[in-house]
Amino acid sequence: MLNGFAAVSLMDTLFIDERQVTDVAGKVVAAVFEVSTPEELQKLKIENEQTENIVLDFLYWKSIPAENLVAALQGSEKTVFAVSNTASEAKLYLEALEHGLGGIVLKTQDVEAVLDLKEYFDKRNEESDTLSLTEATITRVQMVGMGDRVCVDLCSLMRPGEGLLVGSFARGLFLVHSECMESNYIASRPFRVNAGPVHAYVAVPGEKTCYLSELRTGREVIVVDQKGKQRTAVVGRVKIEKRPLILVEAKLSAKEEEMSFSIILQNVETVALVTPHQVNSSRETAVPVTSLKPGDQVLIRLQGGARHTGIEIQEFIVEN
């Protein structure tokens, strides 16, 4: 079994001896406390420990809400770890009350559980990276008739400047604004992005894309703001309905030979494209497609055009 785990990643060996964790040199790196009841949790005096790290093992007491644990330990100067038997339980400890615990100790002999948790941390690390967004100039706006458009309702609220990266071609995804802005025609829906037709690509975690038609309840997408800051959000509902559509094309420069990028969207005031962020400017955050015109500036995400099952590959491809 050790060989199986060694193939997963580089590992540092630690040893648990009664109430402490030591490294290969015998240095104490953490104190271990076994907790069986809520009363025992309240009586803990972890601040009296000399070590910076504290490991809590809840033994057979499995009903403790992760939120209660984080609330009880808030303000502590120690880094608190909880022993978890599954990856899903570990995620609860890491996300409770938005902050979570300092870490977890995964107690398992299942390599798949380790890989699952590794993927989770990879996504969290990805969110800390800022995406590079590029200014593009609108070159064409044209009505194209009816089509099946997709509304993506998230389990999270979006703020002004945030939306989803969507496009007809994977080489360039437009930042489509959420419906968080007030409108004269409909109430604000800050959880929704009217994202475009079923054929369009949308950015998802792992630097991948999928078709809007493939989104389902429970799947994750990437929410991005004007500055490229990204976060992961869960899809709560997807609605596909026939609506009038409008074609939008953009280029990075006015050169005739310059590659163009395009997106098709519903032709309605509540659908908008995010504009470049400008400090100390009263410029609007997004431009409704009903007001969009050649010369307007919007934001796009440049990436490789060739895709296989949503994964970027090195391959010659022509998309028009």
TrEMBL record:
One GO molecular-function entry: 3-dehydroquinate synthase activity
3-dehydroquinate synthase N-terminal domain ranges (all copies): 14-121
Alphabetic keyword roster? Amino-acid biosynthesis, Aromatic amino acid biosynthesis
Pfam families, per database record? DHQS, DHQS_2nd
Domain 3-dehydroquinate synthase C-terminal: residue ranges: 136-320
* Keyword Amino-acid biosynthesis carried by entry: yes
Any Gene Ontology biological process: aromatic amino acid family biosynthetic process
Protein name (Swiss-Prot/TrEMBL): 3-dehydroquinate synthase
